[in-house]
What does this fold into?
Amino acid sequence: MGLIIDDGLVIVDHSATEHLNTTRDGNPTQFKLDGLLVHSVYKRLKNSAKFSKDRQQKVIGDNCPLIYAVKGSDDLSTNVTSTKRLLEHTQSIISDICEKIDGEVDGMVAMPSNFPLANWLAKRVQRETGLPIFNDVFRKSTKIEAATRAAALAPTRIAGLDKRQRRQLINAVKRVQKIEGNIYAAKVVPPSLRAFFDPIQWQGLNCPNTHRLLLVDDLLASGGTFLAAKSILEAHGWVSPMHSVTWFSAV
It folds into this structure.
């Protein structure tokens, strides 16, 4: 029920015990995030001792190598056989999630990404529920937009950080500013500091503000994107979301 990484190739192997629970057993999982219930299709596993000793192994693919392999980033890749093997249990697991949210949501909003994994998940949920998907509600922040609040807080004591943590935040801001291109990439920021960055921006939503919306994303790392979406929707007068769904859980 896990993954094997062989020279950059991420292989789904149900008999393995690293990185991910790929079988029906133990999936889906739930995680409470500031009043938001996160339903995850696949449970991520903590690294074993052998991986924890090797820092490079530990952080590869933002600690979720399969998602980066699908995207073809971080020098990782996967193959059709592994994808089919993972999807053997997907619809059954999603059916469980749909039963849990039945009658509690009125539509879905997928988080913005350069790769449509969140949209694929939303469409699979839609097949089961018939819920409408509202597109382009948010866009990814530019690196300047994402880092503005963090840069302002880093030199101060307002954020409740000690001197060492403020230095870490300053360094994280610098890494964001050095990202190639204009779009913010959360993976360059340690999960513990991502709450100080603004990952998404509001574009608009064409549905009643009484709609209870299901937030959809590809991965739960720090939960920053979900919390940002929740806060933005509330600020624009929408009912606070109660449920969200993601392919891969927090570790």
Residues 2-139+201-248 form one domain. The two ends are 15 Å apart (CA to CA). Residues 163-177 form the longest helix (15 residues).
